[in-house]
Amino acid sequence: MIVERTSRIRWLLIFWLFVLSAVAYLDRVNISIAGTLLASEFHLSKIQLGWIFSAFLAGYALFQTPGGRLADKLGARRVLALAVLWWGIFSALTVVVPGGFRFALFAFMTLRFTLGAGEAVMYPASNQFVARWIPSSERGLANGLIFCGVGVGAGFTPPLITYIMLRHGWRISFLVCAVLGLIVGLVWYLLARNTPEEHSRVSPDELAKIKSGLPESHPAEIPKLVPWRLML
Asked: What span, in angstroms and rounded, lies between the C-alpha atoms of 150 and 21?
């Protein structure tokens, strides 16, 4: 008699969300490491560098809610894959700003704002994934692992970017970030599915465990949406 082994695909995907979270911070922090070289090459003041850094945060803040809404509509698999592609493109576009460009400040602010808008979907989409894949009793651990990527990404970025910059220049360091993101995003898209029912490698035992741990939803008990005016 052959006994089918219980799969653990949900934890493989949570690990990959951890990786995505770390890569997101790689793309986020790299410009602060390269800031001195950018300021020297493009004759930017510290205040102007601050505007560039803040442009990312503005895009990140403004697109959190739309990013979550997009994840609800399209699912975490597709949204996160598109997001990582977005990060890679705008990290790479940072490299093509020519030295001495008259409008370099505006170009960098635009690129960082747009990058921030793309990164805004990371955690709303992760939460949506956890809600569909992870039983309630495991969600603390799952979310802890995902957000652990924040610390790992922030911790490894300075030495990695500094190492690449000192040997190959700041532009190559941004290209490395872009390529890493594209590779990680492709792997995520190939591995992930929006729901456990869609994944061919999820065993019946794992599917039953996931379903048994998800909160039951009753249409009559679903609260009405809170009005935007009240929230604000």
From this structure: 6
